[in-house]
């Protein structure tokens, strides 16, 4: 048996998230069906972490064990011919047997994208949360700063979470503004969050809270108070899933 | 009756082109249904030009006559609530009765996009033609130069065209290369063509021919010979429609 690690990109629009669920169409199901059809083996795929329904991945990392003799450099092409156009595998290597794509991940980056302006961008409608009025990006940036470092992120975690500890470290939190499209009269705000791990809905609740900061409904300083409150009710709403992309996963 | 001019963006993936066709789903049909539902009038929409099945528009221009009293600044919002998410109207103004969105257009720009690299970009799979091997962009750029100016574009026109004259002027022909994505190991080539008018399939045949130049199957100089031949058979294949976007239409 070999342990194979692969990089997967997906447009999550059509899927009920990464992880297998009863009677749902998930990324994991589609990957495992493609692996079954390629190898004849019933293979269980492990990922760096689940993504919610509608969330995308530029770079999800998976691993699985197989007895198949297919050379590692052939896995991508072979699988891509079996996968639908919205899921793509773009890298494969043999890793040590003790490699586990979730446990070995030391750092993850998520990106949340908000489109502001008179109109959404038709070509990115599945990838950007559309907000019709302008947002105060300077205030949002200031709010984002409070999240950097080790904190108890209970306020930014779904009450459905079952994790024992809500303490996580955010290494980097930054915002990029993409220029106005002269035709669509719009601009995109990308929020990048890098940390050692993220709680259930954490990035989406942070995005939902920062949107309120950008709207002037909350001050940037309130982000610190929300952290201190350790209470989900103190934060803003969970922003819609389609603006979120798992951007990068780093390993030792 | 007022003559109203609007800007329309659409993702052409799900449509059989702009223009109404029997038993087909077209952009024009969807726009006219939305206008009927908004105004109660059977309105015929005129565009700056038809686009083929699967072709997109960043900025298509349409006009139509209506007796409706809806203030012009309300048309966009009212129509967008009735239109599907892949069609968006982003500008509306009242124009002179003799304005005709096709006849008054003095300049059009199309963009054709090719993605080169080990893998396609999952998020732009509907918007980019994927070419797995690298292309010689310098040769393509040199080939593109020959198209600038007034020429008989018969070689770059579908034999199904019914136009009397195939003489058109290309004002600008340029290429932009978008940087490599480190994860997807890919880059995009955007070909922009600006002219006073384009023949049936003209941009797609130019793109198909330039791809062959980039592959080394033809020299850049052959583009001049193809023009001189005035024979569709001398040019390359018609590149796939989903890489093409109507980028801009200019009026006097």
TrEMBL record, chains A, B:
One of its GO terms (biological process) is tRNA pseudouridine synthesis. It is an enzyme of class 5 (isomerase). CDD domains: PseudoU_synth_EcTruA. It comes from the Bacteria. Pfam families: PseudoU_synth_1. Homodimer. This is tRNA pseudouridine synthase A. It comes from Paenibacillus foliorum.
């Amino acid at each position: 048996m070999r342990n194979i690690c692969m990089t997967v990109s997906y447009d999550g629009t059509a899927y009920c998230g990464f992880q297998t669920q009863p009677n749902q169409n998930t990324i994991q199901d589609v990957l495992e069906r493609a692996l079954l059809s390629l190898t004849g083996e019933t293979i269980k795929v492990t990922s760096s972490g689940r993504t919610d329904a509608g969330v995308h991945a530029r770079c999800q990392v998976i691993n699985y064990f197989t007895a198949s003799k297919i050379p590692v450099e052939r896995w991508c092409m072979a699988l891509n011919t079996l996968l639908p156009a919205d899921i793509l595998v773009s890298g494969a290597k043999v890793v040590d047997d003790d490699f586990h794509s979730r446990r070995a991940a030391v750092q993850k980056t998520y990106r949340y994208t908000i489109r502001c302006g008179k109109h959404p961008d038709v070509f990115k409608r599945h990838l950007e949360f559309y907000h019709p009025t302008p947002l105060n990006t300077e205030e949002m940036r200031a709010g984002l700063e409070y999240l950097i470092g080790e904190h108890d992120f209970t306020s930014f975690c779904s009450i459905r979470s079952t994790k024992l500890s809500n303490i996580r470290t955010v290494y980097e939190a930054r915002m990029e503004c993409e220029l106005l499209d002269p035709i669509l009269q719009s601009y995109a705000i990308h929020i990048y969050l890098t940390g050692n791990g993220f709680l259930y809905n954490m990035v989406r609740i942070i995005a939902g809270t920062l949107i309120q900061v950008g709207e002037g409904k909350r001050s940037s300083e309130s982000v610190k108070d929300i952290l201190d409150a350790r209470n989900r009710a103190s934060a803003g709403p969970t922003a819609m899933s389609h603006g979120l992309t798992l951007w990068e996963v780093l390993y030792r």
